[in-house]
Every structure is written in C-alpha cells, then in structure tokens.
Specification:
Helix 15 packs across helix 16. The radius of gyration is 49 Å and the shape is rod-shaped. 44% of the residues lie in helices and 25% in strands. It contains 26 helices and 27 strands. With 697 residues, it is an alpha+beta fold. The strands form 5 sheets. An 8-stranded mixed beta barrel has the order 18-19-21-22-23-24-25-26. A 5-stranded antiparallel beta sheet has the order 2-1-5-4-3, sandwiched between helices. Bound molecules: ligand C2E and calcium ion (2 copies). The site of one calcium ion (CA) has 4 residues, from loops.
C-alpha cells in the first residue's frame, strides 16, 4: 500500500485518528477527529490546540493514567473516559486506542491512535442503570423483596426488604444464591427448579413459583417469586436474572383452612369421604402398578343412634371422637381412617398380605377394632357401651374400582349387621347375590300391592291365666309369583329402604281393622289385633296420619280394637314427626306395644314417659328359658318392672310347654308362639278359634 492510499484511508476513517508527539503536540488529525472536537478543518484544529490532551479529560487524573499505560506497555486499548470537545467544551464520552512509534534506537517518535465517540452507548447504559435503580426502589417500596442473580458466578444480591421478610438484617446473609436455595422447603425444590428451567429455556415469559422458605427463627414462609432473565450470553445461557419475592403466607394459610375444611371431618379430624376417595383412587393406581392388595373396611357403630338420642349430641360427639381414636390406634399409621359421616368410618389398608383369601393378620386387626370399640366409653355421667359391625372388601379379589369396593364393603357390612352385629364379614359372592336379590325384590315389591300378592296372617296371643284368646298379631305374608311365600324379615327391610312400607303398612292396617271388626262380632267384643309399624312410617307427613283414625270411625271401631307394635329405637327418636305421630295414636285410644323388648338400647325411663300398654319380651330371652337361668331372671325383672309401671307383658316365641310354665310362674300376662299356634290366614284363624275349647268361654 502506498503512502497516498494510507493517507486517504486515514482521512476516510469513520472514527477519529491522530498522530502527536510524546509531549502531546498535534501533528495530524483526520476529519472524524476534527469533527469530534467541534472544528471545521484540520488547520483550524491544529491552530487551536497545542497539546491535545491538556484540558481534554473531564477527570484530570485520566491523563496521567493514559500516559503511564503508554509508557509501560507501549499501547492503550479501549480506554473509555469522559472528555471535553476542544472547541465547544461540551462533555462527551470517548473510547481511545493508541500506541507508540519508535525509531530503530527505541526512542519514542510519535503517539498514534484512534478516538471514538461512545457517548450514545454510555448514556444508554446509564439510563438502564438509572431505570433499574428506580424499578428496584419501586418494588422495594411495594413491600416486595428484590433479588438479582448471576447464575454463572452464583452471586445473588438480596434487597433489604427481602432479607427482612425472612427475619435477617441487611448484610446478615452472604450474597449467594445458595443461601436462599438452602432455606427452601425440600418438598418445594423440585417444582421450583422445573419452573426456573422452563423460563431459562424460553418456554415461559417469566419465572414464577410458590415455595416455602425457612426464616431465621426456623419458621416457614410461603413465597411467590416472579423473575425474568434480563441478559443472556451468545449461546442463550442466562447471565443475569432479576425478580421479586412476595410473602403469600396469609393467602396460603387461608387456602390451607379451606382445604382442610373440604377434606377433613371437623369433629374427629379424620379425612372425610372426599379425601378418602381421593386416596383410594391413588392407592388403587399404585396397587395396580405394584401388584399389591388393598383392603377397604366399612365400620358402623351399633346402637350409636340410641346413645345420641338419649344422652344428647354432645355426648354422641365425645363418643365419636373416642371411637375414631380407638380405630386409628388399631389401624396404625399405614392405613387411612376416614369418617364418612354419622357413625360410619371407612378404613383403607395398603399393607394386606398377598394371596390369602382371608388374610390372617387383617382378621386380627379387625378383631382388635371390634374389641377396642366394644370397651366402655366414658361419656356423660357414666360408661356407655356400643359395638361395631365391619364389612371388608379386598382389591383386586372383590373389585378394583372405588365404586366396586365401596359397594362390596357395604354389602359385607350389611351381612355383618344381619348376622347380629359386633362382628366383621368379608365380602362374598353370596352377598352380592343377596344384594341383587334385594334389588329384584324391591322391583317386584312395587307391583305387589296392585297385584294383590300380600296376605295378612294372624297369630293368637293367649292370656296365660285364663287361656282366653282375644288378641292376635297381624303378620304380613307375600305370595311372590315365582318365589312362593316370602317372609317379612326378607322384604320388610327392602320396603323400608324404598319407602314402600308406607303404602304397604296402610294396607295391612286396613286389613287388620276390617278383620278385628269381624272378630269383635263373632268371638269377643274386646278383641284386639296388634299391627307392626315400622319407624319409617312414623317419619311420614302428618296428612297420612288422619286416615287411620278416619278408617276406624268409618268401621265404627274404638281405638282399643287395635294395638300398634313399635320398637325401642322409636322411643328414643325425639324428632317432632315421630312425637306427634305417637301422641295422636294415643289420643285415638289405640294401644301401644313395645316389640322385641330387651334387644335394643333399653332405657326404662322412656317407657314411663310414653305410657306404653304392653311390653313384648323378645324371643331370644324366651328361647333359652331354663329354671335358674339368667334369661329367666331377666324375664322376672322385666315383668316386675312392667307391672310396677302399670304395663302388661307378652312373651314372644313360646315354643315349649316348659317355657310356657316358667313364664306363667313368673307372672307373665300373655304368651304368643308356636306352642299355641303359628301365624295363619284369617279363615284358618276362624277355624282354630272355633275348635279351641277356650273359644267358647
Ligand atoms: P315380630 O313383630 O317380632 O313378629 C314375631 C315373629 O316371630 C313373626 O315372624 C312370627 O311368625 C314369629 N314367631 C311367632 N311365634 C314364634 C315361635 O314360637 N318361634 C319362632 N321361632 N318364631 C315365632 P314373621 O311373621 O316372620 O315376622 C317377622 C317380622 O317382620 C316381625 O317380627 C315384624 O317385625 C315384621 N313384620 C311382620 N309383619 C309386618 C308388618 O305388617 N309391618 C311391619 N312393619 N313389619 C312386619
Ligand atoms: Ca310384632
Ligand atoms: Ca317381636
């Protein structure tokens, strides 16, 4: 390249270029440098300035720095300083590059260099820094803490508010990202890292995450963090991330309260139906993966309703809490115990033995629950006793969906209760069949009245002293089109659960009323028929009640012609519908019999309150009557007590002469049972009465 081309290049350079003496005397300045200093031509500039660097730097010390660098290394690269334009004294920012030119002897001849006006970019940076400072101030003022993180070095600056949020004073924690990460709740770390990574990889416009941070005093605070990568390297790796921390502990606490309310039972603190179902679904999924069996237990407290009704809800609550504690104690931490409502509990067990059809360890646990619940409960003034019935369904043997397991555990529970309570039952296919039979019965029952498939049988009730028969009990029979004669024990519970018992009961009452009218004319003007009435019928609307009385009036019968047989449980029911119903029965002169006495939650004070006319001693006491037996002692006691209260006693299920004799000796008023006669159709009853010698009495 010739000297001329070099000169041309020098002139045309877009940035300033110069040559000076080491002392700073300007020898050459190109057009760009002339312009930078505010002159019109090189001549004007050379005339106007002696030493270019004098009065050039806004900070005079920069001049010495520049000179020292040149002396020491022979060159200066990217030396950025604020300087004055020579002519106008206006302040600008420049970046200088320079080197020394020496002769062969090493003596410095010139300085040569370039000067670039970088004012615009310096100002831009300055603006950025200013706005960042403002932004931080704004965030801090809003109560948020600010963090400023440099992932490469691991340095992280935490603002004073952020530090105070966790109980630290500014300066108390080192400026390191690890400090906060270390204090993050272990359960929250994984999600935090995932959210962070998603933003780093550009999948989310901002980084957002909720996590817990441990404060200086050891407590946990819920934090919402929001941040953004503000600078990346050429490869896109984040160099700097800025964000805020907001304390959301209050919101989280509120959410937690709502969550607890939605998933836990307030009384016992146990998981509720919803959470149990959720866990069951989860465990079913896992048990499928791990090929591990599960057990679902339905636990129902026997006679809880009676406790609740007699001692009040507060005592009932105390009992439930204690029952929950005992069940939990037997199940241990590996199972979930939930309260489904009322006195129903459900247990989910995940550590059931493999293979066995009736796992032994599980049976021991079930037995433990039964024993725990049959112990006394210190409730109210004294001890109260309940027991429990348990139904168990196993997964996968009995089902692998919540619906199937719940349904089958429920059927097993039903069987446990049917077998006499205070026991457990594993689900069997037979129970499923029984349940299906109940469903079919229910469907068939709906048309049974219309198709006139029902018939009322009558069983004589004999006066023990005279042998006279002027009472009978009406017992319903169903002539099923395909199954033949179906007993009431089989279909009454089905009719009760569907509500059909109301219509059926009205029909029985009408039959009995018409029949007793007939017998009052043919056999005895005092004749009385007892009609069983299910508790479900007592919960009916008031409108239906009148019709029974109307019917009696229509038939010209006094109330005394009929007795209504109720069970002990009903006496404890204090609901207005039941009380009203009982009162109006009494008002119409109908007698009240207390059926199955001794099997329920006996509370004698209720007998007095409701002035009951008859007590029917349950068959289970009569069945085992022996001289000197406990049952005989009980019969004596019941009879004495009933007489003291002005009530008369009927013994049910008298099957032998011996039983009859013992009851007679005990002072029992009436007897009913196969020893005298089985229940029979009305026409047969007529015959039986006529053939009976006492009938003519
Ligand atoms: P319950 O009221 O206790 O009726 C007495 C039951 O004992 C009757 O059973 C009767 O046949 C049976 N029985 C009578 N004497 C003897 C005996 O010496 N030995 C034995 N082992 N059993 C005897 P049934 O007729 O099968 O009725 C069963 C239950 O069905 C009745 O028990 C009653 O609770 C209910 N029931 C019957 N008819 C009606 C009805 O019209 N309405 C309602 N709501 N329930 C009814
Ligand atoms: Ca009865
Ligand atoms: Ca009975």
């Amino acid at each position: 390249m010739t000297h001329d081309t070099l000169s041309t290049l020098f002139e045309l350079l877009p940035i300033g270029a110069y040559r000076t003496t080491p002392a700073g005397v300007q020898l050459r300045a190109n057009a760009a440098l002339v312009r930078l200093n505010g002159y019109a031509s090189e001549a004007e500039m050379l005339a106007g300035t002696q030493a270019l660097d004098k009065g050039w730097y806004v900070l005079p010390s920069r001049r010495q720095e520049f000179k020292d660098l040149m002396a020491r290394q022979g060159h200066v690269v990217d030396f950025v300083s604020e300087v004055y334009r020579h002519k106008t004294r206006e302040r600008i920012w420049v970046r200088e590059t320079a080197h020394t030119i020496r002769n062969s002897a090493g003596v410095v001849l010139y300085y040569e260099g370039t000067v670039e006006d970088v004012t615009a970019s310096v100002q831009a940076q300055q603006n950025l820094a200013d706005s960042e400072a403002l932004w931080r101030m704004a965030l801090e003022a809003a109560g948020d803490g600010v963090w400023d993180w440099y992932p490469d070095s691991g340095r992280e600056f935490l603002s004073p508010n952020l530090l105070r949020m966790f109980g630290f004073e500014p300066g108390e924690l080192p400026d390191a990202a690890a400090e906060l990460d270390r204090r993050t709740h272990p359960d929250d770390v994984a999600q935090m890292l995932r959210d962070r990574e998603a933003h780093f990889e550009g999948q989310t416009p901002t980084y957002m995450n909720e996590h817990r941070v441990q404060c200086k005093d050891g407590q946990w605070k819920w934090i919402l963090t929001r941040g953004m990568v503000v600078s990346r390297d050429a490869a896109g790796k984040p160099l700097r991330v800025i964000g805020t921390h907001t304390d959301i502990s209050k919101r989280k606490q509120a959410e937690e309260v709502i969550w607890r309310q939605a998933n836990f039972d307030a009384l016992t603190g146990l998981p509720n139906r919803r959470l149990l179902r959720h866990r069951l679904e989860h465990e079913l999924h896992r048990s499928d993966q791990l090929n591990r069996p599960l057990a679902v237990m339905f636990i129902d407290l026997d006679h809880f309703k009676e406790v609740n009704d007699t001692l009040g809800h507060d005592c009932g609550d105390v009992l439930l809490v204690e029952a929950a504690r005992r069940i939990q104690g037997c199940i241990g931490p590996t199972g979930t115990v939930a309260r489904m409502g009322g006195d129903e509990f459900t247990v989910l067990l995940t550590d059931v033995e493999h293979g066995a059809e009736l796992p032994l360890a599980l049976q021991q646990r079930l037995q433990a629950v039964l024993s725990a619940l049959s112990g006394p409960f210190a409730v109210g003034a004294g001890d109260v006793f309940v027991s429990a019935s348990i139904g168990v369904a196993l997964c996968p043997a009995d089902g692998d969906t919540p619906e199937a397991l719940f349904k089958h555990a429920d059927q097993a529970l039903y069987a446990a209760k049917g077998a006499g309570r205070n026991r457990y039952r594993f689900f069997t296919a037979a129970m499923q069949e029984a349940a299906q039979t109940r469903l079919r019965l229910d469907a068939d029952l709906r048309c049974a009245l219309e198709r006139q498939e029902f018939e009322v049988y009558y069983q004589p009730v004999v006066a023990m002293d005279s042998g006279r028969v002027y009472k009978a009990e009406a017992l319903l029979r169903w002539h099923h089109p395909t199954r033949g004669l179906v007993g009431p024990s089989e279909f009454i519970p089905v009719a009760e659960s569907s509500g059909l018992i109301v219509d059926i009961g009205d029909w029985v009452f009408r039959q009995a009323a018409v029949q007793v009218g007939h017998w009052r004319q043919t056999f005895d003007p005092e004749f009385q028929v007892g009609v069983n009435k299910s508790p479900v019928q007592f919960h009916q609307k008031a409108a239906l009640k009148g019709s029974w009385m109307d019917l009696l009036t229509e038939l010209g019968l006094p109330g005394k012609a009929l007795a209504i047989e109720i069970t002990e449980g009903l006496l404890l029911d204090t609901s207005p519908a039941v009380t009203q119903h009982l009162t109006s029965l009494r008002a119409s002169g109908i007698d009240l019999s207390l059926d199955d006495f001794g099997t329920g939650y006996s509370s004698l004070n209720y007998l007095q309150k409701l002035d009951i006319d008859f007590i029917k001693i349950d068959q289970s006491f009569v069945r085992n009557l022996q001289p000197d037996s406990t049952d005989l002692a009980l019969c004596h006691a019941i009879i004495a007590m009933a007489h003291a209260l002005g009530m008369r006693v009927v013994a049910e299920g008298v099957e032998t002469e011996a039983q009859n004799k013992l009851l007679l000796q005990a002072g029992c008023d009436y007897a009913q049972g196969y020893w005298y006669a089985r229940p029979m159709p009305a026409a047969e009853f007529d015959v039986w009465m006529r053939e009976r010698p006492q009938a003519t009495q």
